[in-house]
Amino acid sequence: MASNLYDGGIRRRRYQALQAAACYFMATLTLGWFFGPIRDFWIRAGADPLLAILSQAVATLLVLVWTAGWVVEAFDVPGRLAQRVAVGFGAIGLLVACDFLVGYLMFDMTPGELVAHFLTPEGAVVAVSLLLAALLPIVRGRRPER
To answer: What angle do CA 124, 32, 126 make, to 5 degrees?
Structure first.
């Protein structure tokens, strides 16, 4: 009997982390849809692309600081590192997969071209901001359990 209770608790925690990751993914995707066109208009108006991407990254991360804490609390994700890592890296993994899919389907970019973009200064800013976004659920919300 104790084994079944233990297994149910593990499944519940995994399900909470999965739900929180899906919600965090939707939040990051929505922020990209909101700030992306603003960035593009700014670049077309003559702004430096690196400055525009830095501005978008900072604005997005500022909103995600609150969002990460809210998601962790709303879905009651335990403070254990494994569940928090699953939320952050699961969401950002989905976001990167969508980015690759859109690049391939809409712009006919190969995976090599998409990866090569991360080697540019603008791509490096994106990569660092994605890493920071993935780490936010780990440090936000309730303190980790011991």
So the answer is: 5
